[in-house]
Design brief:
The chain has eight helices and 15 strands. The protein is α+β, with helices and mostly antiparallel strands.
Length: 250
């Protein structure tokens, strides 16, 4: 059976590859972690090796690259790719996690923030910048994920990381909410950008919602909703897998 995406005249995949060796493009719903998605696919289709090409926070939705079989060898390719997001920030409320799931740490009146002022502050966060990973994140310090330390009420020193923001554009403003498009390098925290913009405006802010729409050359249009994917037969799943040689021959 020919994997989806291969034309009849395309070169045959390398010998030894199984039909499930490659890339699944999943539209993740809000709620499950990226690990949950990987585990559900592994258990449902009884495939031993399943991984991902970059996590999404539990409440974030959208493009999740799932690597299957020998496709897990492509992990570094996708982890290092640029990403595009559509999101919403909420002005006037700061949280300890910098998103809507965290504990409120401050509330201030955002009524003085105009569209022009918000756009001007967002523009300041384009280009190269250093970000300090939030305490509620999977970054490890001394081998322990920061979110585990945060659950214990601990705050530890985190080293700032250089990231690049290609675009951080306001698409709709309906106070106290503002929609945006973000295109950025690997390791960029959208929620930290929102929190920093809120701090710069003097009213605080947090990330209210986030959807990833692109990772490298793969667009959300190619994704299959997780629930629909889990209802496929094993053979139908193979038809949705992008063969890994499409990515290794670049």
């Amino acid at each position: 059976m020919r994997p989806r995406g291969m034309a009849s005249g395309a070169p045959a995949p390398p010998r030894g590859l199984e039909p499930y060796d490659g890339v699944l493009v999943v539209d993740k719903p809000a709620g499950p972690t990226s690990h949950d998605v990987v585990d559900r696919i592994r258990r449902t289709f009884q495939i031993r090796k399943v991984g991902h090409g970059g996590t999404l926070d539990p409440q974030a939705t959208g493009l999740l690259i799932v690597l299957v079989g020998r496709g897990t060898k492509l992990s570094s390719l996708f982890l290092g790719s640029d990403k595009t997001y559509e999101g919403t920030l909420r002005l006037g409320v700061a949280t300890d996690s910098q998103d809507a799931q965290g504990r409120v740490t401050a509330e201030r009146d955002p009524s003085g923030v105009t569209r022009d002022r918000l756009e001007a502050e967002m523009a300041r966060f384009r280009g190269d910048l250093y970000q300090t990973p939030p305490m509620v994140s999977a970054v490890k310090v001394d081998g322990v994920p920061l979110y585990k330390r945060a659950r214990r009420g601990q705050t530890v020193k985190r080293e700032p990381r250089l990231v690049h923001v290609y675009a951080f554009d306001l698409t709709d403003f309906r106070p106290p909410y503002a929609d945006f498009v973000l295109r950025c390098s690997k390791g960029t925290y959208a929620r930290t950008l929102c929190a920093d913009v809120g701090e710069a405006l003097g009213c605080g802010a947090h990330l209210h919602a986030l959807r990833r729409t692109r990772s490298g050359d793969i667009d959300i249009a190619a994704a299959v909703p997780l629930d629909a994917l889990l209802e496929l037969s094993r053979e139908a799943l193979y038809e949705r897998i992008l063969p890994m040689h499409r990515f290794t021959r670049r």
